[in-house]
UniProtKB/TrEMBL annotation, chain A:
It comes from Gluconacetobacter aggeris. GO terms for molecular function: 4 iron, 4 sulfur cluster binding; heme binding; metal ion binding; oxidoreductase activity. The keyword Magnesium does not apply. This is Nitrite/sulfite reductase. InterPro entries: NIR_SIR_4Fe-4S, NiRdtase/SiRdtase_haem-b_fer, Nit/Sulf_reduc_fer-like_dom_sf, NO2/SO3_Rdtase_4Fe4S_dom, NO2/SO3_Rdtase_4Fe4S_sf. Residues 132-284, 464-560 form the Nitrite/sulphite reductase 4Fe-4S domain. PANTHER family: BLR3264 PROTEIN, FERREDOXIN--NITRITE REDUCTASE, CHLOROPLASTIC. Keywords: 4Fe-4S, Heme, Iron, Iron-sulfur, Metal-binding, Oxidoreductase. Residues 65-123, 360-410 form the Nitrite/Sulfite reductase ferredoxin-like domain. Pfam families: NIR_SIR (PF01077), NIR_SIR_ferr (PF03460). The keyword Iron applies.
UniProtKB/TrEMBL annotation, chain B:
Pfam families: DUF2849. It comes from the Bacteria. This is DUF2849 domain-containing protein. It comes from Gluconacetobacter aggeris.
Length: 564, 112
């Protein structure tokens, strides 16, 4: 069926831009170039310029400007990764930071260089639009999309449809507050769907099409809430119309008088699930549905602009992988912790840990980015995914080639065998970079990952998620950490509050505060005592989270505070 | 930009004035009127009862000086060299604690 095979120029794993997209981006860069020139000349004041630069992803942070670049649904191609490496080398300090929203941040950008950087990004179909402000932000997606064995529907096509719908949406440019959407197509939630303004889970419909579970009103920040389950049967055809109705209701009724009460989660709590649902249903019934209808032909047309990998592994690929695992225990361990089962025979997905022991979670140097781009070209159809855990993924690797991938990663300090383990810590930039921070997140992550560096020890401790935020905005997802660490400010000094029992997944829950905040130098020891207490009390193959849920906080409280 | 945490000024204390450079965003400290340094060691120390007027004056000419977000930072009276009293401002002054190469002092050395 040659007519369904996409042109070879299309990137595998994400949508291929057309000339209209490219012309728009080029215009937008020139518009910003002009705004920057006017700011430097003084004809635009900082107050006038700030919203304009934020619309282009440029923040003024603690030490310099920070540029946040969108990676739609977390998928990059090798050419884009090389461009990011080039920007890191040329305009920044030779590294970039991958974030929990599957974006990339550069921490040392100069205002005067920004138009050139944006022009370079536009050359590879990238931009920083809607990475800031009260609009619909980058839609995040399952890092194993289109590859995972447990996936029911590849959510990237719908993520792209949502991207097109939300980008420059005229009604939704000034929402009461920022708006974050995540989408998955697997019953195992890897996107924290229940902690987003809207979380979607795609699944097959009884009629053979696609339908969605819809969660709404989840969020972190100072009011952490697990989203409510609004629908379990939203038909694909109504996806845009229904989301349009959901966001319209928020736009109309969401609070604009108090920034702390402006997110949709507060509205959903205030109206109640039923109250919100009724308003959405009324809007949905009244709107021009034809305009937002998503017919199967449109979905097919978008799908056709995604390159698809030609998956053909040799029959003995699994046997070759088995042999390599038996021959090398370190490789075997890495395969156990850092891979995910693939839907296609002979394939596997590999997670590249950006969490070396003692390292900065999510940072990658330009040399590492180039190497990963090369590996993607050679072994994974040129496609790279960013995870919300701040790691990277090669989605489609042949099992007989996995050992070569691992060796190359190991040579670049990219093969820590710690995915889902205690070394796989989420940390926001914290007080080392962020102007809103109370305390530093990164040094705590570095000390913890160094303390628990041993891969044997990490495997013994088993699955555990530690997440660190430098302030209550919760960019480091601490509320959803099995162990959450929140930086607080006490008279200008850093303290850390621990929460236990959070979970981002299908069993989502908000962590509970354990007790008084601890000084920086006591925090890492306190975590070690929590882990010790867990190892003493766990039964069978309970995770830390399960032991906590079974036994409650008291014994952990004693472990932290009794000895203090 | 100024932050409520930086306005905790004690009577009898002293402060320095800081801002970001407009073009590259880098942190600078006022040495004297119209002159700014990336090194807090060079900063002019001003008694807290004069600081508000000095900040207002510096803020008034920030566009001409190529600066944004002028504000004052209290420093430790006991320290030998200007040292902010809050950890936030110490990190601004001395650089991110996680990249020793990126501290203002190390950069100054590298370019000297
Ligand atoms: C460094 C500049 C940053 C600033 C100024 C900033 C600001 C904020 C603010 C104000 C909030 C609270 C929003 C609300 O509750 O309405 C927030 C939440 C959040 N941010 Fe950031 N953030 C920054 C960096 C990051 C980074 C690096 C990441 C990814 C690692 C990130 C991901 C998130 C997430 C996931 C949330 C919580 C989810 C939510 O409720 O929206 N942010 N951020
Ligand atoms: S949680 Fe706070 S400190 Fe961390 S990045 Fe977000 S705003 Fe900054």
């Amino acid at each position: 069926m040659p007519d369904t095979i996409p042109a070879p120029a299309l990137p595998v794993g994400h949508y291929g831009y057309d000339q209209v997209d490219r012309a728009f981006l080029a215009d937008r860069v020139e518009q910003f170039r002009d705004q920057v020139a006017r700011r430097i000349a003084g004809t635009l004041s900082e107050d006038e310029f700030k919203p304009l630069r934020l619309m282009n992803g440029l923040y003024l942070q603690l030490h310099a400007y920070m540029l946040r670049i969108a990676i739609p649904y977390g998928v990059l191609d090798s050419r884009q990764m090389r461009e990011l490496a080039h920007i890191a080398r040329t305009y920044d300090r030779d590294y970039g930071h991958f974030t929990t929203r599957q974006n990339l941040q550069f921490n040392w950008i100069k205002l005067e260089d920004t138009p050139d950087i944006l022009a370079r990004l536009a050359d590879v179909d990238m931009h920083a639009i809607q990475t800031s402000g009260n609009c619909i932000r980058n839609v995040t997606c399952d890092q194993f999309a289109g590859a995972a064995k447990d996936e029911l529907v590849d959510p990237r096509v719908h993520a792209e449809i949502l991207r097109q719908w939300s980008t420059l949406h005229p009604e939704f440019t000034f929402l009461p507050r920022k708006f974050k959407i995540a989408i998955s197509g697997s019953p195992n939630d890897r996107v924290a769907a229940r902690f987003h303004d809207i979380g979607l889970v795609a699944k097959p419909a009884p009629d053979g099409g696609t339908q969605f579970d819809v969660f709404v009103g989840g969020g972190m920040g100072r009011t952490p809430i697990v989203g409510v389950h609004l629908r379990d049967d939203l038909p694909e055809e109504d996806l845009l119309a229904y989301l349009e109705a959901m966001v319209r209701v928020y736009n109309e009724y969401g609070r604009r008088d108090n920034i702390y009460k402006a997110r949709i989660k507060i509205l959903v709590q205030a109206l109640g699930t039923e109250g919100y649902r009724q308003k959405v249903d009324a809007e949905f019934a009244a709107m021009n549905r034809a305009r937002y209808r998503l017919p199967p032909e449109t979905v097919a047309a978008i799908r056709a602009r995604f390159g698809t990998p030609d998956l053909h592994a040799p029959d003995d690929a699994p046997a070759q992988l088995d042999r390599a695992r038996r021959a090398e225990p370190a490789f075997d361990r890495w395969v156990r912790t850092n891979t995910h089962p693939h839907r296609a025979p002979g394939y596997i997905s590999a997670v590249i840990s950006l969490k070396p022991a003692g390292g900065i979670p999510g940072d990658a140097t330009s040399a590492q980015m180039d190497l990963i781009a090369d590996l993607a070209d050679r072994y994974a159809f040129g496609e790279i995914r960013v995870t919300h855990m701040q790691n990277l993924v090669l989605g489609h690797v042949r099992q007989d080639e996995l050992h070569a991938v691992w060796q190359a990663l190991r040579g670049a300090d990219l093969a820590s065998a710690n995915i889902g383990l205690i070394g796989d810590i989420i940390a926001c930039p914290g007080l080392d970079y962020c102007s809103l921070a109370n305390a530093r997140s990164i040094p705590i992550a570095q000390k913890l990952s160094a303390r628990f560096a041993s891969p044997e020890l990490q495997e013994t401790i088993g699955p555990i998620e530690i997440k660190i935020s430098g302030c209550i905005n919760a960019c480091g997802h601490h509320h959803a950490g099995h162990i959450g660490i929140l930086g607080v400010d006490k008279k200008g000094e850093e303290y850390f509050q621990l929460t236990l029992g959070g979970s981002p997944g299908s069993d989502a829950s908000v962590g509970q505060i354990l007790g008084p905040a601890l000084p920086e130098d006591a925090t890492v020891d306190a975590i070690a005592r929590l882990v010790d207490a867990y190892l003493v009390h766990r039964t069978g193959d309970e995770r830390f989270l399960d032991t906590y849920r079974r036994l409650g906080a008291t014994l952990f409280k004693d472990a932290v505070y009794a000895t203090a | 930009m100024s932050d409520v945490r930086n306005n905790r000024r004690e009577a009898g204390g002293s402060s320095v004035i800081t801002a970001n450079r407009l073009l590259d965003g880098r942190i600078v400290w006022q040495v004297e009127e119209g002159t700014w340094s990336t090194l807090i060691d060079d900063a002019r120390i001003i008694p807290n009862d004069e600081i508000e007027a000095a900040i207002a004056h510096a803020a008034g000419r920030q566009q001409a000086d190529g600066l944004v977000g002028v504000y004052g930072v209290q420093v430790d009276a006991e320290a030998a060299t200007p040292t902010p009293v809050t950890v936030r401002e110490r990190i601004r002054a001395f650089g991110p604690t996680v990249h020793p190469d990126f501290t203002p002092a190390a950069e100054f050395e590298a370019h000297a």
